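Sequence, please.
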């Protein structure tokens, strides 16, 4: 009877060991499949170092206030055999929660009193279109509105750089702008005592491949 019990235990242990080995193999296959999805394109925005910088302005003297978005997701496109091909027709989204101005109090106000006032604007989404060797158009959706922003660009070695200017009022964001100015009232006053937040925002975006 003892022999039967011992034999049974050995069989159970052997079965469990083989089951663990089988699951491990399955996990390895899953990992292999995930790795296989990585881009093999010569140029990929997913793998590039992307910097999305902006400059807003305050006071009647138009004092610049810099900032950036720390995260961007590539929704479609973003790959090619050249930098132009990788950039053209790329669809993207940017979480507004990733805004960063080196001032936590300012970041909070921008999120709550600017983007927070807008309609369904947890993300800024859009598409980049290159029209020739130096110009392009960014279609940007914000506050439920999609508008175009003209930009100029350069490609120097492995670096793509584009600059353009957004007029916030085109996205029906006057109320959001007023809300932010109220929240930052004293901080946006110049020597004349007038509190002002400008509607134009300069963009400077760089992708290093």
């Amino acid at each position: 009877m003892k022999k039967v019990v011992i034999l049974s235990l050995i069989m159970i242990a052997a079965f469990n060991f083989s089951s663990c080995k089988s699951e491990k193999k399955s996990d390895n296959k899953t990992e292999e499949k995930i790795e296989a999805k990585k881009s093999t394109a010569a140029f990929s925005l997913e793998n590039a170092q992307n910097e999305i910088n902006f400059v807003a302005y305050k006071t009647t003297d138009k004092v610049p206030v810099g900032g950036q978005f720390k995260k961007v997701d590539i929704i479609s496109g973003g790959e090619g055999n050249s930098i132009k091909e990788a950039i053209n027709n790329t669809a993207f989204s940017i979480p507004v929660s990733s805004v960063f101005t080196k001032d936590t109090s300012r970041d909070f106000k921008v999120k709550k009193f600017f983007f927070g006032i807008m309609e369904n604007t947890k993300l800024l989404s859009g598409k980049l279109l290159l029209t020739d060797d130096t110009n392009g158009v960014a279609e940007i959706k914000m506050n439920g509105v999609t508008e175009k922003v003209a930009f100029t660009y350069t490609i120097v070695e492995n670096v793509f750089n584009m600059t353009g200017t957004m007029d916030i009022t085109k996205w029906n964001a006057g109320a959001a702008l007023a809300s932010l100015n109220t929240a930052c009232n004293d901080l946006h006053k110049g020597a004349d005592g007038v509190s002002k937040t400008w509607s134009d925002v300069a963009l400077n975006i760089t992708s290093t491949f």
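The chain is about 30% helix and 40% strand.
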